[in-house]
Amino acid sequence: MKQIAIFASGAGSNATKIIQHFAKKKDDATVAVALVVCNKPDAGVLKVAAANQIPALVIDKEKFFRGN
Predict the structure, then answer these.
(1) Most CB atoms closer than 10 Å: which of 19, 60, 64, 68?
(2) Distance (Å, rounded) from C-alpha 49 to C-alpha 34?
(3) In 3D, which of 38, 33, 36 has the Cα closest to residue 10?
(4) Is 41 exposed, middle or buried (0-12, 13-18, 19+ CB in 10 A)?
(5) What is the per-residue pLDDT across 8-28, written as a single tens digit (0 to 9) for each?
């Protein structure tokens, strides 16, 4: 099975559709959403990830580019 990460920073409507798409194919699952990556700690997509029991990673953009 292939695992993918979703990069998002908004409400999570697109992430929800992607998660639902692959969840419908459980009998024949070849892809699973394994991680949601976001740069906004208050983004709705993090609630979507939690509701679907998908781990989330919040990246602070400033720290990322500074290397700290």
Answers:
(1) 19
(2) 10
(3) 38
(4) exposed
(5) 999 999 999 999 998 887 666
CA distance 25 to 33: 12
Question: Encoding tokens for residue 18?
Answer: 């992607």
Above pLDDT 90, what percent of the chain? 72
**DSSP label of 11:** S
| CA–CA separation, 5 and 35 (whole Å) | 5
Which tokens belong to 43? 């983004």
3-state secondary structure of 24: coil
Averaged pLDDT for residues 20-40: 87
* CB-based contact 58:38 (threshold 8 Å): yes
